[in-house]
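Thread: uridine-5'-diphosphate complex, take 2
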Amino acid sequence: MDEKEKLNVMLFPFLGQGHLIPMGDMARALSVRGVRTTIVTTPLNVPTIRGTIGKNSEIEILSMKFPYVEAGIPEGCENTESVPSPDFIPIFLKATAMLQPQLEHLLLQHPTHCLIASAFYPWASHSAAKFNIPRLVFYGIGVFAMCASECLRLYQPHKDLSSDSDTFVIPHLPGNIQMTRMMLPDYAKTDKYTEMLQAIRESEAASLGVIVNSFYELEQVYADYYEKLQGRRAWYIGPLSLCNQLQEKGKRGKEASVDEGEILKWLDSKKGNTVVYVCFGSIANFSEGQLREIARGLEDWGQEFIWVVRRSHKEWLPEGFERRTEGRGVIIWGWAPQVLILEHQAVGAFVTHCGWNSTLEAVSAGVPMVTWPVSAEQFYNEKLVTELLGIGVPVGVKKWARIVGDSVGSEKLEKALNRIMAGEEAEAIRNRAHKLSQTARTAVECNGSSSSYLTDLIQQLHSIAG
Ligand code: UDP
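Output below.
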C-alpha cells in the first residue's frame, strides 16, 4: 500500500497513567502494522506517551491545551495522578469534557479514518459523527469488570440491602460473584454516576465497537457474555504491554526514579521467585499509618522485596527500617520500571492494588499476586484474580477507599506473603500463573487470538475507509 492509501487513526487516551500507557502501547501495535497513528494529549502527558512509544518516530503526538482556568482546577493537574485529592475527580472529568472543541479542531486539521477514544469521553462519538468517521471505545479495564459494572447498573442489587457489609450476588453475571456494598466505589451509589454510565453506554451504542486490553482466553466467558449483553462488537487485542515488549523490552510510561540497570543488577543477584514486588499504581493514596503497617509487614516477613512509594519524604518510616532491611529490601521513591521488574525471574509475587494494567502485566509475566484493591473497579479485578483465575490471594481489604487508612495491619500482609510464596497452595498458584503467561504470550504472537483480532480490526477499518 502506498503512503496515500495508508489508514490514519487518531488515539485520544484519558488523562491518567493507566490509560496513556496502554494507548501508547496500542499506537505502537498499530504503527508496526502500517497504520499511520496519531495520539492526542495535553503537554504534561506527552512524556508518558513518549516513554511508551519509545523510538518509534512514525507515531505523531498532537498536543492540546488543558483548560485550567475555565474548569477552575489548579495549574499542573493534568492527569489523575496529579489531582490534589480524589474529591477533585468530578471537576477533573468536567475539565476533560472541555477538550471537545480542541479535539474537533484537530480532527478538522488532520483528516483521519477512525477515532479511538477512551470510554471516559462519551462525547467523542458525537465528535467522530460530525466528521463522518467511526469511533471506537477504549476501556482501560478488563471485560469481567465491564460486565460486573454493567450488571450492577442494570439490576442495582446493592440498593435494597440493610447494611453495607451484607453480601449480594451480582445478578445474571456468570460465576456467582459475591460482593458487599462496601466494595463498590462511593460514586457508584450516586445518580450522577449512573448518568455517566448511561452516557458511556449511549456513546458505545453509537460507536463501531469496543477495544479491550485483554486477551480472549483470559476472560472468555465474560467476552461472550459482554457481546450478548451489549450487542456490540469487541476486539481483544492485549496484553498491550506484551505487544510492546515484542518491540522494545520494558520501555513504558514515565522516566523511572531509579537506574534501571542498577535495579536489574540487584535482582540478578537474587534467586528465582524470592523477591516480592510491592506497588499500588499511579493514583492510590495511602495514609502514613498504612505505609508504616506495610513497612512492618515487610520487615516481619523477613525476605526480599522491592517497594514503590509515591512520597518525597520518609519521616513516617519506622525508625531504623532502612538499616535493618539493607541488602534485602529496596524502596523506590516515585516511579518504578514496573514491567522490567515483573518480568525478572527473581520476582516471585506482586502485592498490587489490582489496577487493570498492573493485573495484566502480572498475568503476562506469570507472577502470582497478593491482591490489595483500593478503588475504581479494582475489587472486581481482585475477584477475577483470586476466585476465577486462581492466581492470587487476597490480603483481606473490605472497603473501597479514597484515602487508605490503616485498614490492613502488618500481620495480614505477612500472612498473605507467606501464603503466596511457600507451600503447596503457592506452588499450585504459581503453576497456574505460568500457564496463563504462556497463553498471554501465544495470544500476541502471529496468528494468536489478540493478533488475529488486531488484524481483523485493521481490515474492518480499511473496508470502511474504502
Ligand atoms: N507503573 C509503573 N511504575 C510505577 C507505577 C505504575 O510503570 O511505579 C505503571 C504500571 O506498569 C501500569 C500503570 O503504571 O502500566 C498503572 O496502571 P494501573 O491500571 O495498574 O493502575 P492505576 O495507576 O491506573 O491505578
